[in-house]
Amino acid sequence: MTSKKHPEWVPAAGHQLHLTGIYFDAIRLRGIRGEAVLQHLATLTEGEPGPVVREMAGARWTYFLIPPGASDGYDWPSGVKCFGPATRDEWVGIPAPDGNTYPLSWRCGAPEEDEFVDPELLHGLVMAQLAPATHEE
Question: How far is the CA of 67 from the CAs of 14, 70, 84, in angstroms?
Fold first, then answer.
């Protein structure tokens, strides 16, 4: 077993809802788009993209967790849901590091203290993937 020190907002078992904008902001992408962005992000970060939560049922959302307040610095395109301090009463489910956390899971392992997805890198990848599609509509 690993000796990672997880942030206080990562539950010990199951999963918990957390209000965004306090411990983290979240950028949400649906299904295959989220997986594609994650794959590119993982490639560019040598397999260490930061905390990413995946919903394994329904729309299969992917949540990229960035530092609290960081989402305000970017204009996110259509098709991306930003959960941060500018939104009110937005909650994101956070799974435990191990055990039964269905329908949520960590895509690249639970985060360590102060570990987040790089918002600038994430924004660049999202814009490269989604921005051209929004111009065609």
Answer: 23, 5, 10
pLDDT tens column, 32-80: 999 999 999 999 999 999 999 999 988 899 999 999 999 988 998 988 9
CA distance 86 to 92: 15
Rounded CA-CA distance 7/66 in Å is 13
Enter the pTM of the model.
Answer: 0.90
Alpha-carbon Rg for the chain, nearest whole angstrom, is 14
Q: Kindly report the backbone phi and psi dihedral angles of residue 96, in degrees, each rounded to the nearest multiple of 5, phi listed first.
A: -70, 165
> Using CA atoms, how far apart are residues 75 and 34, in angstroms rounded to an integer?
18
Taking the domains of the chain in order of start, what are their residue ranges?
15-136
- Residue 24 to residue 71: CA distance in whole angstroms: 9
